[in-house]
Amino acid sequence: MSTRKLNSAESGLDAFVVTDFDDAPMSCGIVRLAPKLLVDGATWLARSQTYQFASFERQVGGASAGINAPADARAEAIAAFIEAFTPDAGSVLLDAGKGLGAGEISALRAADPRPEAAIVRAVELRQAGIVAAAELALGGLDGRTVAIEGFDAAGLQLATALIGRGAHVVAISTATGSAFSAAGFDLGSLTDGFAAHRADLVNELGVDAKPGWAVFGVQADALFVGSKTGALDHNGAPHVKAGVIVPYAPMPVSAKALAMFARAGTVVLPDFIVTGGALAAWPAEGASAPGDLAAAAAELVTSALGEVLGAEQGPLLAGCARAESFLLTWRTELPFGRPIA
């Protein structure tokens, strides 16, 4: 794991790029922007990416970059980052993460060898894989009850897909709080409420809003988590009633919570497999691109997930071991530390 600082007194740039393997032929990950991002958090995001690529047999290392900038200096900071990073843009591929729009780093695309669909359809294909993973783990979505922690624009898209498959969204949480409905929320209410109120929609759904953490204790078949790394920790784990934890972002379940879930028999899916659908648009070397990318994303994820779903140690730890088996086909040793918060 190495960290390259991109600091400039002249431009005021305060940024960094983390790569998991110095000698990898290619590294890939995200770049985020916020007033203060920590390198430590970025290293674990890079590690999670490494395990994702290994899960789908790609000789690609994980990467994660951060731009530290206040809101009133974001444009200048982004421009300075692009200028400083461009020489590496062909070997370290970065997608826009939290705090950035895809168009704001489009200048980096000139050196990016990935097919266009792998970038412009990444969110759609990632979601297709997440929904397919939940469907496989639950044995179908029709009539199933689900809760979504960290409901935002992506959460609304996820809810739309789940409801379209016959699931009932019985709880959501936002930064404001959480809201429950035993019968399931109407998609129109979620859509209109989010458009008008964003995180405050939990106060506009005709039910009494509860604290955000209360979503962990809802009675549901599956709990979708991913608002941040370690969102579901040892404090929230004892309250969970859902039988399956479905991650929609990297490392939302802490190591302590994972141990508690193992004792309780709660299934925790491996985030680095579940969120890998976008790789369907970036075929392995020599493979042709599939025609139906959404279907290919679902198949890619469920094929890998199916190999670890019934493992005795649980699918998350089994997924780690599976990824490590591939890593040892092109690395002399494993990186230190598994991607678990």
Low-confidence stretches: none
| Helical content class | 25-40%
Question: What's the number of domains?
Answer: 2
- What is Rg? 20 Å
Count of helical regions: 10
Oligomer: single chain
- Briefly note the CATH topology name of the largest domain: Rossmann fold
Silhouette? globular
Strand neighbour order, sheet with most strands: 8-7-6-9-10-11
Could you describe the largest sheet, including whether it forms a barrel? 6 strands, mixed
Q: Mean of the pLDDT scores? A: 96
Topology of this protein?
Layout: E1 2-7, E2 14-19, E3 27-34, H1 39-55, E4 61-68, H2 74-85, E5 92-96, H3 117-120, H4 122-138, E6 145-148, H5 153-164, E7 168-173, E8 178-180, H6 187-197, E9 222-225, E10 244-247, H7 255-264, E11 267-268, H8 271-274, H9 293-306, H10 315-327
Parallel strand pairs: 3-4, 3-5, 6-7, 6-9, 9-10, 10-11
Antiparallel strand pairs: 1-2, 2-4, 7-8
GO biological process, one term: amino acid metabolic process
GO molecular function: oxidoreductase activity
InterPro entries: Glu/Leu/Phe/Val/Trp_DH_C (IPR006096), NAD(P)-bd_dom_sf (IPR036291)
